UniProtKB/TrEMBL annotation:
SUPFAM superfamilies membership: Restriction endonuclease-like
Name the UniProt record assigns to this protein: DUF559 domain-containing protein
Source organism of this protein record: Kribbella turkmenica
InterPro entries, alphabetized: Restrct_endonuc-II-like
């Protein structure tokens, strides 16, 4: 990231800056902040959004006086590599100890007091720790989005459990404190993707029993594998398929999946596969799982 002044100090004239923008060598990230163009066409849409947000963060900090702001909330989680969901990635989140709070030029300025242990440095930027950024984000998010971040944060090697416990006390009277507490109480590091986290919330919201996560199954041929969710009382497993389309999968992958499901069913298990679009229809999706429970019970009675 380079500002107009930094480019001028490095010897670029106004005409040279304009020429680089005109021929596509540079892109304008925000007013007066530029970066080299990078081909992102090979990335998935959500990965392009993450790259875009990281650039916005660098541009926002580069436009401010050094040491006056700390990257926070979902912007800090993005820099830590923690997945976020339903976060506004067009808006940068910064925390300041002085100055006004509010939104200006798509940068939201928060006022807050940060202890030294709650601030780290990544890519030359000061940002709140994984624990701090998680509670900050949860305070401003719906429960489902807060759980997505909390599940991922629980798996992050940089999470300090002691700091997280202290923050639970510190944030007791924050706006959004009930969501912080409920999301962290529900969080589970065994939930290994955004889709799995959302599906866990769906199951809870729809009144399904709590499943066992990442249960392993074997048969006479050896290990079949781990399943995302197992309902032991219902002899049912639920798998979340993060692939957008089955048509995009190689034939060999589809054969392996079918063989794996056949082996699970041979153990007497019902298998339900959930995809992204199913998460937008929670009642219907929960009914599919309950139908699997019913089939399992009927099979048991016949047996």
């Amino acid at each position: 990231m380079v500002s107009s002044k930094q480019a001028a100090d490095a010897g670029y004239s106004v005409e040279q800056i304009r020429a680089r923008l005109a021929d596509g060598r540079w892109v304008r990230v925000r007013y007066g902040q530029y970066a080299e163009r990078v081909d992102l066409s090979g990335l998935a849409p959500w990965d392009r959004q993450i790259v875009h947000h990281r650039r916005l963060v660098h541009a926002a900090v580069n436009s401010m006086s050094q040491g006056t702001a700390v990257v926070s909330h979902h912007s800090a989680l993005v820099l830590h590599g923690v997945p976020v969901w339903r976060a506004d990635l067009d808006e940068v989140q910064l925390t300041r100890t002085t100055g006004r709070c509010g939104v200006k030029a798509k940068v939201r300025h928060h006022r807050g007091v940060l202890s030294p242990s709650e601030v780290e440095e990544i890519e030359g930027l000061a940002l709140t720790s994984v624990a701090r950024a998680t509670v900050e984000t949860a305070a401003r998010s719906p429960f489902e989005a807060a759980v997505v971040c909390a599940d991922a944060a629980m798996r992050h090697p940089g999470l300090d459990p002691d700091q997280l416990s202290r923050l639970l006390e510190t944030t007791e009277h924050w706006p959004g404190s009930p969501t912080i507490r409920s999301a962290l109480a529900f969080a589970d590091p065994l939930s290994e993707s955004v889709g799995e986290s959302r599906l866990r919330v769906l199951m809870r919201t729809e009144g399904l029993p709590a499943p066992t996560l990442q249960a392993a199954f074997e048969d006479d041929a050896g290990l079949i594998g781990r399943v995302d969710f197992h309902f032991p009382g219902e002899e049912t497993v639920v798998e979340f398929d993060g692939m957008m389309k089955y048509a995009d999968k190689p034939r060999e992958s589809l054969i392996r999946e079918k063989t794996r499901e056949d082996r699970l069913r041979a153990l007497g298990l019902q298998v339900v596969r959930i995809i992204w679009s199913d998460l937008d229809h929670p009642t219907r999706t929960a009914m599919r799982i309950r139908s699997a429970f019913a089939r399992s019970r009927r099979t048991s009675l016949v047996g």
